[in-house]
Amino acid sequence: MKALKHLNKYFKKYWLKLFLGVLITIIARIFSLVMPSYVSKSINVIEKLTTNDIDKATANDLLLQYILVIIGTALLSALFTFLMRQTIINVSRYIEYDLKNEVFDHYQILSLDFYKRNRIGDLMNRISEDVTQVRMYGGPAIMYGMQTLTLFVCLIPLMFMKAPTIAFYTLVPLPILSVLIYQISKIIHKRSTKVQEYLSTLSTFAQESFSGVAVIKAYGLEPKINADVAQLATEGKDTSMDLAKVNAWFFPLMILLIGVSNIFVIYIGGKQYLAGEVSLGIIAEFILYVNMLTWPVAVVGWLTSIVQRAEASQKRINEFLEVTPTITNTTTTPTPINGKIEFKNVSFTYPDTGIKALNNISFVLEPGKTMAILGKTGSGKSTILDLVARLYDVDSGKILIDDKPIKEINLDSLRNSIGAVPQDAFLFSDTIANNIRFGKEDATQEEIEAKAKQAVVHKNIMGFAKKYDTILGERGITLSGGQKQRVSIARALIKEPKIYLFDDCLSAVDTETEEKILKNLKKAAQQTTTLIVSHRVSSAKNADTIIIMENGSIKQQGSHNELNSVNGYYKQLYEDQLTEKD
Ligand SMILES: Nc1ncnc2c1ncn2[C@@H]1O[C@H](COP(=O)(O)OP(=O)(O)OP(=O)(O)O)[C@@H](O)[C@H]1O
Q: 537 CB under 6 A from ligand 1?
């Protein structure tokens, strides 16, 4: 129960609703207890009528009275049961809502390394499946727990008061039922976890097969994929059958034990009736009690397993909630950003892989200037951009923004001043306009179109039937690689930031379009410090400075003319790409 303590703050928040819910539960139970004794009374009246101890008219009056009481209390019990669900189950929904928001908000503040360490499926599972398990504790467990407790406290003394011997024999099988249900619930839990795991494997497999359908078709892999699915389906069928088998025991067992209790009532009650110790009505009353008690007793076993599951789930949720972001904001006061970037002997090793991506890097980039970063793949180019956005903190050396250590700069101010276009442009399943607007929430249609024109994607967009309202992604059309890159560029441009970080974002556009975009960028980015990572000299040659990266170090540094006048990587690349172009 240690992990579930986390929920206490929510119980405190909703204490009034919970208190009302508990009160209503007690009232609903008390009303439901009236019915059996009036059934008993009615049977006694009928018995007296048959033995002529009472006249017909009085019997009619009494029976009508009792029936009205039974109907009235049943209606009241139903009304309060409805209210009980409306309060307690609603509280559990509020708690579920709050907890999901808490987990999601926490996910948002966690640094990139957290997402590298954990699988997306796991993050999704904890916020959906695990929170659902915890909700069962916050709502149904409390509701059924209270219901059972009230029933036990009121009914068991009442039964012993009315007929102690029958009460004793009736109650004997019930704890056995509770233990059995607990054991079955445990097995059901284990097997349903297996089914859940299987379902998640199947959906991951299906998702990958659908996403990779082009590769599957190109390689003629359909028969293999079909065979894999068939095998997965067989495993799935077996696990589901295992679950169905144990599920099938649940109700027969309950019915068996109710039957045993009923036999006891009839046998012991019958004997006592013959001995004149109890009335016929008491036997009927006890049979009703047995039926009223069966579900709550079974619930005790079920509740135990719900609480165990909730505890396990909350523990998993807490594990993530306890993770602290590695990158934190050190100041709450906004820092104005001008755009000067300086790296002083910066070295950086990725903590998860231990790969040393940067080794003693130094450069200064004045505000409004452009620097191109070239070099072979894996040489550390993207890492430089990630460090400017402070997605990671450096191991040694210093990064200064406007001559101030990056750690002392307000993180929100820094990130708000950056317009980044990552290597693999990510667009949301939304309209093109909204994808661009992501860079500036209140952007007008005119602004969006102006930036799309600068990114040389406006014409493409106008070619779609719904133009800027075209939906992208799973629900809509798929853009080509180059179109995606240009929409992402428009998104960065609309932000009008102080620093642009372009990570190889023109790799999928032809050189002619590249040239147009670069020209537009030059105009748009006159006041903006720009870092362009590229594999093409054409993207780099107009930059104020170019650095050539090799194995995490700067191999060459200078302007196009400077680098082109000495033998080295840059000159070679320039000549190779010129020949390619020709
Ligand atoms: N998130 C990460 N976690 C661990 N290692 C990483 C991560 N990102 C990059 N690396 C490693 O760091 C090194 C530098 O990577 P980086 O992405 O900066 O290279 P790059 O020059 O941008 O390459 P490319 O031109 O292929 O994009 C590589 O060896 C890479 O494997």
A: no
